[in-house]
Here is the input.
Amino acid sequence: MKFLATFVFALSIAVSGVAQAHSMKNLEEQLYDKERYFQRIDKVAPAFSLQGFDGENVTLEQLRGNVLVLHFIYTNCPDVCPLHAEKLAEIQQMVNQTPMRDRVRFVTITTDPKNDTPAVMREYGLDRGLDPSNWLGLTTGPDRLSETRELVEKFGHKFTEEGDGYLVHSVVTHVIDKEGRWRANFHGLKFDSTNLLVFVNALVNDEHGAESAEGDGFWNTVREWLQ
Here is the structure.
């Protein structure tokens, strides 16, 4: 883990120090070529006003200034949801070994607010390795079920209720930048965690949308560091 911290610290310097002439768009184009599960997006993220662990209100506006790594789950999910949470916990662990720790928030939103109380959400995340220092588990609460469905659908998910409490929705990791713009989706669970890490790091260091990594040489260096 010490090696990983050194790697991502060096990565942070590399991305933040490249020439101003290169744009975030360059990195997104490179990532599009290298990550088959990456989808570039650039639009205002759907606003939300949700309930946190202690009953506090948490809004998208309050989280501005942080890069958000956001996903939807429900705690009774028997298959992909726990795997999704565990994958993001691994990525969070990478982030938290670096200076990005205080500038990235991991956000889990339940699609089953009737059963997933704040206490249930906290326990679920802790059991899967998510660190509450920069992780939030959010719910609309049981009285706002329609708002849950609307929010899920605004993020592009097809939401279907089946028997025995089974909720069908796609598995997507959403990335929102510091200004509240929805910048990318990473689909499924097979995406390369390093690619998401590189993208998040670039957003953390991007002050005006004018900085990025340069050319394939940068990506080759990343791969060499990880080997």
